[in-house]
Amino acid sequence: MTARSPLLPAARTCLAAALAGGVLLLAGCSADRLEEDAPAEDPGVEVDGGAIGPDVRVNDDVGLQQVQLEYPLDGVYAVGEDARLFMAVTNTGGEPVTLTDISGPDFSGVRVETAEGQGLPLTVDADDNLYVGAEDPPNVTLLDLGRELRSSQSVPVTFTFAEAGEVTIDVPVSAERQDPTPPFDFPDDDPDQDPTGDDAAIPSPAG
Questions:
Q1: pLDDT tens digits, one per residue of 21-73
Q2: Which of 56, 68, 90, 146 has its CA 20 to 30 A from that of 16?
Q3: Mind telling me which residue stretches traverse the membrane in this protein (predicted)?
C-alpha cells in the first residue's frame, strides 16, 4: 500500500535540484521542458554543504523526487559497501505504474525489501505516491559499490518502468547530518500543492 501526500513544487518541472555543481539528468525530459543545470560534479570532488537529490520526470505522469543515497555513518562509502537509496515515486496518471528494474555500472545489484517480502517490482497506484526509504517499506539498497563515495559525490542509476520507460540519474550521497536518518520528514501543511488531493505532505530532505 502506498503513502499519499502532496508534491513539492519542484515535482511540477523537469529540473534537477542540486547545490553547487548540480546534477546531470541523462534522460527523462523533452528538450522543451528541461532546464539545463551545470555539468555533473566530478566524482572525485566533494561539494561543500552536500547536495539535494534531484527531481526528475520519467513521462507526463511519472516522476522521481529527491533521489539520494543515505549519508554514510563514517562519512565515506568504501568500495564494496552497500548504500541505502531514498526517493519518492509519483504517479499522477489514471493507471498504476510498475518499477521493474534499478541498475547501474557502479554497484553490483539492489536489495529491495517490501511489506510482502523481497524483490522488484514496486507498484505505484494510480494518482498516488510511493516513498522508498521512509518510515515503512519498501526499502532499496545499492549493493557492493564499485568505488568510494562521499557526500555530494554521485553514481548513475537507471530506473526502468514497465509503462513509462527508463531514466538514468546521477544520484548523490546526501549531506552530512548529526544522525544518519532517512532524509525525509513529514510536514503536514500546504495541502494545496497535492495534485492527488490528499492532506498529508511529501517528505523533504532533513538538514
A1: 333 333 333 334 333 443 344 444 343 344 478 999 999 999 999 999 999 98
A2: 146
A3: none
pLDDT tens column, 75-134: 999 999 999 999 999 999 999 999 999 999 999 999 999 999 999 999 999 999 999 998
62: cell is 511519472
Q: How far apart are CA 16 and CA 114, in angstroms?
A: 28
Which CA distances in Å does 97 have to 17, 45, 92? 24, 36, 10
| Chain centre to alpha carbon of residue 161 | 14
103 and 157 Cβ atoms separated by less than 8 Å: yes
> Environment class of residue 192 by beta-carbon count within 10 Å: exposed (0-12), middle (13-18) or buried (19+)?
exposed
Boundaries of every domain in the chain: 9-181
187 pLDDT more than 70: no
- Cβ–Cβ under 8 Å, residues 103 and 112: no
Q: Phi and psi (nearest 5°) for 35?
A: -90, 125
Query: How far, CA to CA in Å, does 192 sit from each of 6, 9, 184?
Result: 8, 11, 20
> With contact defined as beta carbons under 8 Å apart, do 90 and 7 qualify?
yes
In the chain, what is the greatest distance between 2 CA atoms, to the nearest angstrom? 44
Model pTM?
Answer: 0.65
